[in-house]
Amino acid sequence: MPTHGQTGLVIPVPAADALLASVGDRYPGTVREGLPAHVSLLYPFVVAAELDERVTTALNELFVEQLPIAVDFVECYRRGGFVALRPDPSDWLDELISKTRRRWPDVVPYEGVYGDVEPHLTVALRCSAETAVRIEQEVSAELPIWAELCEAWLLVFEGRWTLRGRFEFGDSAAS
């Protein structure tokens, strides 16, 4: 559970929102509430109190060079009570995640709990192994999902997740 002032840097995947809503309806409590379908770039990101013009400028610089890319989510996998989709291709996401981490080397992804994490879209978490198997089977039957990833979002947790900034790939202005 996030704490007040925590932030995250994510790439939204609207094409998968309906899938996550469907899983959440069938398996209450397994899908993160208040967040769209997304691939995490860096979570947690810098604390909200440190978000300033320098951070916004750095994010603009990072994403202005990133071109939108089409990906397919063709594989669903699980580990224990965690179910996720793997993007294909993932090499450009690996590179973007690496660039983000190099830009903020003091920010430890997932606070070091999971080590190196491959790019993924979380479908469900904190569920029983049996439920994870059912979710994986049901979701696999609904694949593939095609998506164009074209922006990053800066989110802040203030009792709920709120959008603090949008950074379009290939666009020098954040909204």
Q: How would you sum up the major sheet?
A: 4 strands, antiparallel
Q: According to CATH, what is the class?
A: Alpha Beta
The total strand number stands at 8
CATH superfamily: Cyclic phosphodiesterase
Percentage of β-strand residues: 25-35%
Total helical elements: 4
Spell out the helices and strands N to C: EHEHEEHEHEEE
The end-to-end span amounts to 27 Å
Percent range for helical residues? 25-40%
Overall geometry comes to: globular
Explain this structure to me?
- The chain has 175 residues and is an alpha+beta fold.
- The chain has one domain (7-168): Cyclic phosphodiesterase (Cyclic Phosphodiesterase, Chain: A), CATH 3.90.1140.
- It contains 4 helices and 8 strands, in the order βαβαββαβαβββ.
- The strands form 2 sheets. Strands 2-1-7-8 form a 4-stranded antiparallel β-sheet.
- The longest helix has 13 residues, at 91-103.
- The protein is globular.
- The two termini are 27 Å apart.
Features:
Cyclic Phosphodiesterase, Chain: A; about 180 residues; globular; alpha+beta; about 25% helix
What topology does this entry show?
Elements: E1 7-12, H1 17-26, E2 38-42, H2 53-64, E3 69-79, E4 82-88, H3 91-103, E5 121-124, H4 129-140, E6 145-149, E7 151-157, E8 161-168
Antiparallel strand pairs: 1-2, 1-7, 3-4, 3-6, 4-5, 7-8
Brief overview, please?
This protein is of the alpha+beta class. Helices cover 27% and strands 30% of the residues. It has one domain: Cyclic Phosphodiesterase, Chain: A.
